[in-house]
Structures are given as C-alpha cells and as structure tokens.
Amino acid sequence: MFVASCFSVQTTSDHWLIDSGCTNHMTPDRSLFRTLQSTEVAKVRIGNGACIAAKGKGTIAITTKSGTKTISEVLYVPEIDQNLLSVGQLIEKGMKVVFKNYFCYVFDAARQLILQAKMKGKSFSFLPFEEEYSAFQTKLTDMKVWHKRLGHCHQQRMISMKKHDSVRGVPQFTDFPSNCSACQFGKQSRKPFQKSTWRSTQKLQLIHTDVDGPLSTPLIKGSRYYILFIDDFSRMCWIFFMKYKLEVAGIFFKFKKNVENISNYRIQAIRSDNGKEYTSSELNLYCEEAGIDHQLTAPYTPEQNGVCERRNRYIMEMVRCMLHDKNLPKDFWAEAASTAIFLQNRLPTKLLDEKTPFEAWYNYKPSLRFLKVFGSLCFVHIPHIKRDKLDKKAAPGIFVGYSGASKAYKVYHPQTQKMVVTRDVHFQEEDQWDWGQSQMNNQPHEEEQWD
Question: Regarding the domain delimited by 2-137, which CATH topology (the fold level of the hierarchy) does it fall under?
C-alpha cells in the first residue's frame, strides 16, 4: 500500500493520502514546513523492504479555505511522491478515525468532525483547499493562541472554563504547551493568603477596594496610581487610574452612582486598608451620610484585605506576561491592566461554582469570540473622510485593548503616537511591532473614535 501510494498513484503533490500503514505523517514538500529540525529517525522502511532517508521533522502549514492550518511531528522525506497522513499518529493525538460508506472521517477528542475524505481508486486522499473537506487543525496551535488571548490564563482554569460551559465562542481544549516563556517571566509563586470564612449573599453587600502605585511610568495627564473596586458577591472588578491618592473619594462617589444604577442594589459596606486616602474626613463623612459601613484592616495586615491583594497580584502577573510576550514598552502598562481586568471578569472562578464574574453580575454568559492577542500587530481601516483616493486604506498599529463604551478595539499607532477606537481591524496575532525601527518618543495621546 505504501509503495503503491508513494510511487504509483498519479495525484498532485497537494493531495494528502490517509494511510493506516504509515507510522508517521510524511511529506516530500519542504516549502510546507513552518519549522523543520533534524530528527533521530534517519531511515524510513517502505513496503518492499527498502529504506529511504528522512531529512527532518517539524510542523507544516496547509492553506485551506478556512485559513492556514498546522500539523505537528511531520517527517520530511524527499524521495516519496505523496503526502501521507498517518492514522496511527492521529489516534495517538486522541483523535478517532472511522472508515465507512466510501468515506474516511476524522474526529477530535470531543468527537467533533474535523475532516472527511471520499474514497477514490480504493484509497482515501483529500485536497485541503477543496470546499468539501473540513479543515484539519492542531489543538496545540489553538491552545497557544487562546492562552495568549486570555492574558496567559492558567491551563487548568481554561480546561475548567470549557468543561463547565462558562463562556461561549471558544474551542475544546485537550492539550497544552509544556512551557510559556512569558508566564515564566511574569509569574512567581507565593504562599496564598488566608481565605475568608464569610461571603456576601447579594450584589454590593460588600465592596473590596485598594490603591496600588506609584508606578514608574506615568500615564496620560501624569496618572501613576490605580484603584480597584471588587464586588464580594460576584467578584466583578473595576479599575480606575488617578494622578494622586487624594482622588480616591471623588472616584468612589462616581463609582457608587454607576454600579447602584446598573444593579438596582445599594452599597452596604466597603473594606479597605488604613491608608490616608481611605481615612480622609471627606470619605468618612460621605460613608456616614450614605449609611455605608467602612471596614478597615488592622495596620500592616494586608491579609485581612486578601481579595484585593490577590487581585493586585493577578493583575500584575497578567500585565507582565502580556507586555513581555509582544516586547511592548512599559508605557502600555495601563492598557495591559485594563485588558487584564476585562479578561478576569470573563474567566470562571471556583468561588462562583465555575461561573464568571460577568455572568454573576449581568446574569448571562459572556462570549469570547472577539478576543485577540494583546499587543499583536494589526491594520486599521482609515475612514474615507480622513484620506484621499490615492492614500493607503489601512494603517498599521498595535492592539492594546477593548473599548468599554462600544463594541470596538483600541489600537495604538506608534508612527503618530495616537490611540484610536475602531471595529474595522485586521489582526495578525502571531506578529508584533518592530520597535527597533520605530521608537516611541511620546506617551499615547487621547483616544480618537473612528466610525
């Protein structure tokens, strides 16, 4: 079968033969390889007893109508004339291969059909770009991309998210890369804080709050601090940036009006540390008039405000991971922090029985179909009113977050130092901006809305 398929069957080099007698995926086309390394398998024995040389092993890219797909652990064997897809190797990856009614069906670990090929000349071959075939996609590639899209979320949390159907629009996760260099740089183990024995029973019954900073790199208008508000019941989190700690009282007034209007509940208590920004007469008087119980932790005992302390750690871990992964300057720490909050509100937690804070707050499941890798290269469509007929219709930029006011993305243009909010974006998630050719001399400008 191997000899007949490799040296006798007259098919194009683009076809792939599904072979139950082949122990490895093989191809003679070097141009298909995205990565290629030398392999310990120096020879491959074929059906007539002869041996042919395997020149390497790597990952190949196949162009289909649904996009570019990858297949891992493929041997580069120049002497064969046919691309071979090993049934045994597919099964080792947790897939299921079924031959029935003149068709070959390949199912993933979740028993979803990912490929089908019709029998031709007593063999099963398929051409990836033909419309009648489903796309073959490596789970490892999906995992790496979604791991980054979710802000380098822990793998067990991603598995639990899919297992409990906490969100919509994400694939089945079955395999994980062993290492992520960005996670190694951004995360470090610490002993956990003592868990609280009391939990609120309704929204806004207790709000945890904390201020972090100053950070070495200021934002627009000189902001160096950020303040967090966390609802104890839903674990929904909000973040605000400020220039001075004295702004805490004013930000809390605005936050209180907003969340009470959305939820139809009233804030009953807030918990903070003993910082001067929380013990000011202005904030204490406002809490007293509004009937809010202000709980303060004991001096030098951050464990008593453990919810915010853990969330601060989690935010900065994600920020470091996302900035390092795309080699972004520290100037983008605020955009990364806002994105981290946005993602954390859409990731399930054990405290909510694997529900997301978003669902606990809004009472419906969030969709993650629109997520993209933070810091990736993208191209933004330029509205016709901002260009003439001969100008370029798109401008390169860096994806730096999601708009909180509209269904759109935030994109930073390094060449003009401007931030725009737009929905007309084409992403290249595997690529990043080359800072060696374009240095950022100024901080990002105010956001500009592109309709």
Answer: Cathepsin D, subunit A; domain 1 (2.40.70)
